[in-house]
Structures are given as structure tokens and as C-alpha cells.
Amino acid sequence: MFNIIKTRIKEGIKTKKINIEDIKKDNIVIFNEELKNKLLNKSKNKNFTNNISVRVVDSGSCNACLHEMSALTNPYYDMERFGFKFVAAPKHADVLMVAGCVARNMYSALLKTYENIPHPKFVVAIGDCAMNGGVFKDSYATLGGIQDKLTVDILIKGCPPEPIDILAGLLLAFGKSAK
Amino acid sequence: MKNKLDFIQNLDKDIKEAVTENFYNQDNELVLKINLKDLKKICLYFFKDLKFYLLSAFAVDESKNDGNKFKIRYIFSHSSIDLFIIIETETSGTFPSLSEEIPALNWYEREMKDLFGLIPEGHPDPRPLMLFPENYPQDIQNMHPLRKDYPFNFRPEFKKYGEYNYNKDVKGVGVFNILVGPVHAGIIEPGHFRFSMSGEPILQLEIRHFWKHRGIEKIAEGKTIYEALSLAEKISGDHCVAHSLAFLAAAEKILNIKIPENVLYIRTIYAELERLLCNINDFAWLFQDAGYSFGAQETFVLKEDIMELNKYLSGSRFNKGILSLGGINTCGNIDNLRKNVLKEKLSDFSKRYLNLKKMLLNSSTIGERFEETGYINKETILDLCALGFAARASGVPSDTRKEHPYLIYDKLHFNSKVLKNRDVFARLLIRFYDIEESFSIITQCLNELPAEDINKAGGEYADNNVNNTGDNISKNKSKNDRCIIAKNDKIDAAQQLSTDSLRSWALGYCESQRGNIIHFVKLDEKSRISRWKIRDPSFHNWQLIEFAVIGDIIADFPIVNKSLNLSYAGNDL
């Protein structure tokens, strides 16, 4: 333990720098008009500033997306420095993050979680299969993504999307610019 | 029993008589065709008398115009002989259930009932498994998706059809139930757990899975090998290399493709990198669940560094998209530059890992939580045919790399450690051994990596610019460039498929971090997938958890769960 602390004091951990002007927007799609306008006018979001609680639901992903989402809390990405945090209960959440192709068996659980999030709320779709089911869209066991079931506000593309893209998407939509 | 070729001669006389036909499908796949009435006798002979363990069981729809015909295959194996026994029988609708005698068959038989409509006669728990009674119509005759006459994209109307029934209730004064899931508090995959408690100790746990059932096996039907390969990566995201390896092993056996030696080495390196990543990840979560944040975050940093290394090597943080039929895609090649970076990084990782290990072993709070928690008895392991480190922590050897060597594992020096302590701590120690073996295997592979002239072999490789700064290598590359480092550059799968019906299917297997993965792949005459049975080790090991938590307090459940760290996605398919 002493060794580790020594190295950390010497070197520190370099948190990934992220600058809102430099974010590559290839992998981020924002559907919500209000959020889009906010981006154009460079005004702050009235509802949430620097304090976003996120509830994650896995509706049938291959678990790579989950690995990447949980990587957001590690010291490299540390999303809490921007005021984003993962919460346990939907009642505490502002944002529903959905990964996966919406398996038939998960659909009612997903809806229940969505209904329990208080207004105003946003839906963030993570990964290539979240919108329309991706490769699983024709299967008997899936319902083909969330696009015609919930109003998706932000989509982050990738299979799986990298943590820096997820963070960038959240920052673009809800955050203040990075330090 | 050591000799593969005489194996059939040394069986009991009445067993030999019951076998109607036997042949070797591949070098180590002995097929025994039997009549349905002898099924119980023969399976029990292998399971009970010869101490073979079950690896997989599945049905294949071979119906023609003249009525329903299904082939059921049971795959058995043993740790001391490199041989798969495939017991093959035919049925038109029912088969005898063996779940009472071979508990590992419980889920397999229920799966066949759901997906094929075959009735296991005398099954102790015939509830639906994957097709939930709430969401799928149970009374429709043809709601059996893996039958060939089921249209591949037919979806019944979404409404509430029925109710779920728990298996057994615990009754008594002061007994209460705690229901958890399917949506959990953390960033975890969905699964439902019902704890029956009396005070603090857990009296019974019932797990309910298959929330994420996506129907991969049905989607794959009719797809080409390349399309199926991209599906194989989505079976269980953290094990994408292992699943692709298993699938490719089967496909390459059927098509009789020879793999160049340096590709075997590179595949081994990626397989071990994945094992390392998953083990470090589990290690971090065990710290986290024991409430030791400092250690956890430090280990997460190590995990992130390994993922960054993956990204540098292959362009994907999970090494997705590197494997290809007969070779490796260019994005996954390990040239001299990457070889040196890999060596340098690994020595750094191994130093940091040793520090973390020392810290964990010196911490008394960690020891208090992990020791004597989550006992899994050897008998449970043998009955449920548990695989991988879970079996090895309870005194049962289970390592495909030793039992059925694939890639180049027969040339490498490594140990597969077996402990007898049975608890969470033993499973953590096994992980430590695995991590150290992974470091040593990758180093061995890098030292012996044959310096083959790749430019000659793969035509397009020479055109590819390697960015020396390394950071942006991945972004500049298209992962779909069909550029294989193989002698036979463009493999026309359809041409190579032998017309001999014996060769239309094969088993592909590999040892993932959680245990043995086995794929059954059957191709049709156009060399498209006709049946693909995927078996992730989680499918066997999930049932262990019901036994592991009995008598523990509920606060220890996350630790027991993480000590096995099973995949929900690979289990649910």
C-alpha cells in the first residue's frame, strides 16, 4: 500500500482532459430540440446544471456497454467532477441510460423504470443496438430497440461506445464546459 | 482409458451392444449413436461410472416433409483424456428426462422444451425457462422458435399472457422473502433473485434468469460464417475473443482450414489478454464490494490501462473485430513495434499487480469478509458439472487448455492450479494464479512468436500504414478490411465445404476466463449456419450460486456473486 501511495503522490493519475469545443461529434446524436437549441445559443440548461443523476438499465446488451459505463466512475474519467453520478433508484434520477436491444422479457421492467423517473427526464441510448435493435432487430425475442417506445434525447453510437464518447455526449447535452 | 482409439473397445459389454453406430467425427470427437430407450443407461454409465462430466446438450431440428425428427446430442468429457463423447439419439417429440440423476441437465432439458417443444418426460421442474410465461404465449402449439418451420422474424403480440410461479416456498414462523431485480441498484445486468430469510441467514435462494434472452441462435440461422462471427462477439461482450475463438475453431475444422503458426501465437496472446482483463476486473469488484475503495479504484486504473493497451494493439478496447476465418484481421497484427510496447507494458502491469496483491493479502478486513464465505462443495460442483475457476477452487480440475489443448497451449508451460478451500477467498487466490499464468504465457508467446514474412502472406498488409506514435492507430483503420494474414488469403467457404455429410458439423471449444466455452456449429450445403449451439460457462455455473449462499448473511451475497462473476448475457443468449 505504501508503494502505491508513493507512486501516486509522485506521478498522480492523469484524468482525461475533455474540452467541450474539441469534442468529436461523430458518435453523438442529439434529438431533443431543447437541448439542441441550448447548444446553438450556448445558454445553460435551465433544468439541470452540473447535477445530473443517471439511472442505467440494461435491456439486453452484451455487457460490453456496461463495462464502459462503469468505467466512467474510475479515476481516469471520473464523471463526478462534472456533476454526473449514477444513482440506485429511478426516483432519484434525471436521466435514463438504456443499453441493449430491448429484449422482450426486459420490456416491462424498462417501462416501469422509465415511469418512476420524475419529470423532467431525458433518455440516453447507449450503443449501436439501443436505437433499433442493431443485429438483433429481427429476432423473435427482442422488440427492436427503444426508438418507437421511448422518446430518445441523445444517442451515443459505438459497439461499445468508448467512455470518453459517453462522457462527451453527457457534457454536450447537460454540462458546463470542462475545466 | 488413456488411449483414444481403443476407447470404444474398453467400454462395458452391454454399453457396446447398445451403441448402434460409432465413428470419429473429428480427431477427438467420438460419436455414439444409440436408440432413445438406451439413453438413460448410457448417459448414466458415462456420468456415474466413468466420472465424465457434461459439457453440453442440445437438439437439432432435422424434420423433413415426412414428419418431425429431432436429433439430440449430449456431450461428455473427462479431465484425463482428450476426447469428447457425443451421444446422439433421435426423437419425434419426447425424450426421457435425466435431470434427477444428472442435475446439470436441468436447464438444458427445459431449454429444449421451450425452444423445440420436445417434452422431457419426468422432469422435476418443467416450468418455462427462456420464454417467460408473462411475455410469450404458452398455449400456442408452434411457439417453439428454433424449429425450422418457425418464421425467423415472427413476433407474437406483446401483452400479458400469464403469471410466473416460484419453484418452492419456504414456510415457517419469521420467514420472509426479499425480492431483488431484474433492474439492480448498480450498473449490473438484469437477473431476478428471491431470498428466503429467517433473520440474517439465507435459507433459500431462487434465481430467475433469461431476462436478456435475445434469440442469437435463431438469428444466426442462414447467416454466413462472417456474419455469424460478428454475432459471436456480441454473445458476451467481455468474452468476445473467447467466443469468437470457439466459433472459429468449429468453422475452421469443418472447412478444413490450416492456420499459419504465427496466427496461432497471436490468437493465444489475445485470448490471454482477455483472461487478464477479466480477472483484473473481478479483482477490482471484489475490493469494491468489500468496501475497500482505495484498492478498488487502484485496480480499476490498472484495468483501464489494460483496455487502453488493447485499444493500442487492435483498435478496440475489447479486442473486437480482430479474428477472421483462417487468420487475423490486419488491425490485430502484432508487429515488432507493438511487440515491444506489449512487453514493456506487461512488466509494468505485473509490478503494479503484485503491489495490489500484497495489499489485499495484508488486509485483515478483506480476509475477514472473504474467508469462510460462500462455500461450494465438491459434490455440488460435480453434480452441476461446474467449470473453470469455480470448480478449481473446490478441488475439481477443469481447464480446457490442459484437457483438450487448442491453439498452442500444448507447447506452453503453465499450471492450472487446484485448491481445496471452497470459499470466496479460494476463488480469489485461483484468480491470482491465473493472472500470473497469463503474464507468463503472453511473455512466452512474445518470445517465441515466429517472425513470418507477413508482407508475402497477406497481400494487402504492406499497404497499411502503421502510425508510429501509436495513439491514433485504431482510428485510422477500418476494422472491416478483409485482410487476413493467412496463406489462403481469400477463403471461399462454399467451395471448401466437403460434401461428405460427416463433416457438416464440428465442436469448437476454448477456455475463457470463466471456464470452458463450447460451440456446436452445423453448416448447410451453402456453408451457411444451419444450427449453432452456444454454451457459455455461466450456463452451468449460475446454478452454483443457489448453493453457495445458503447459511451466509444477505450482505455477503454481492461478494459471493462477484467471486463467481458470471455473465448474464452469455447465459441468456
Strands of chain A, total number: 6
Mean pLDDT of chain B: 82
Low-pLDDT runs of 5+ residues of chain A are none
The CATH topology of the domain at 224-455 and 511-536 in chain B corresponds to Cytochrome-c3 Hydrogenase, chain B
Count of runs of 4 or more consecutive helical residues of chain A: 6
| Derived structural class of chain B | alpha+beta
Radius of gyration of chain B: 24 Å
Beta-strand portion of chain A reads 5-15%
Please give the CATH class of chain A: Alpha Beta
How much helicity do the residues of chain A have? 25-40%
Oligomer: heterodimer
How many domains, in number, for the residues of chain A?
Answer: 1
Reading the helices and strands of chain A in chain order gives: HEHEHEEHEHEH
CATH superfamily membership of the domain at 224-455 and 511-536 in chain B: Cytochrome-c3 Hydrogenase, chain B
Order of strands, main sheet of chain B, comes to: 1-2-5-4-3
Largest sheet of chain A: 6 strands, mixed
| CATH domain class name of the domain at 224-455 and 511-536 in chain B | Mainly Alpha
Neighbour order of strands in the largest sheet of chain A: 1-6-5-4-2-3
Give a count of the beta strands of chain B, DSSP E runs of length 2 or more: 15
Tally of contiguous helical segments of chain B: 20
Q: Name the biggest interface.
A: A-B, 50 and 59 residues
List keywords for this structure.
heterodimer, A: 179 residues, alpha/beta, Rossmann fold, six-stranded mixed beta sheet, 6 helices, B: 573 residues, alpha+beta, Beta Polymerase, domain 2, Cytochrome-c3 Hydrogenase, chain B, five-stranded mixed beta sheet, three-stranded antiparallel beta sheet, 20 helices, 37% helix, globular
